Structures are given as structure tokens and as C-alpha cells.
UniProtKB/TrEMBL annotation:
GO biological process: methylation
InterPro entries: MeTrfase_7, MeTrfase_capping, SAM-dependent_MTases_sf
Source domain of life: Eukaryota
Coiled-coil region: none
Molecular function GO labels: metal ion binding; methyltransferase activity
Keywords attached to this entry: Magnesium, Metal-binding, Methyltransferase, Transferase
Name the UniProt record assigns to this protein: SAM dependent carboxyl methyltransferase
Amino acid sequence: MVRIIERNGCFIVEKVQELSKSLELTKCMDIQSLVVSHLRAATEGLIKEHFGLEIIDQLFNSFEKKLANSNYVTFSKENTPEINLFIVLKRKAFDR
């Protein structure tokens, strides 16, 4: 994981720690909710800036329903590895 991050070139790995307790997801829907919440955290500001706050909840609720009603095996419990790492990254400064 550290090599992948370093190969990207944008971040410095400040800390890597193994978590003592794994995240237990019992249903496929739990994994889908987790994926949607991470996507929302990463993109909500950009979407809100371009399209307004009014559509945010509806957009991500629709996306979660589409994942739940689809055959995306990527988000099944069987295909989701347990990763018990906590990684702190620092963004590298770039010369402009």
C-alpha cells in the first residue's frame, strides 16, 4: 500500500498503523452504503458548487439505490477484502 501511494507522487506517508479491530460488514447493503458515503465525502463540495445543495441528498440516495438493485459483484462481501490499516498522508507541495 505504501509503495502504491509513493508511486503516485502526490503524498508523503506520515504514519501506517494496523487497526486492532476489523470493520465488520454483515450485508452487501452495508458495503454499498460505505462506498456511497466515501464518494459523497469526496465529491459533495464540487457537486454542490456546480449544481446546488438541493440535489445532494436525492443524488446520493439514488446512487445507493442503483447499487442495491444492480448486480455489481464488486460490492459484495465476498469480493471486498478486509483491510485493517490506518494511513495518514501529507500532500506534497508542488512548484508552480
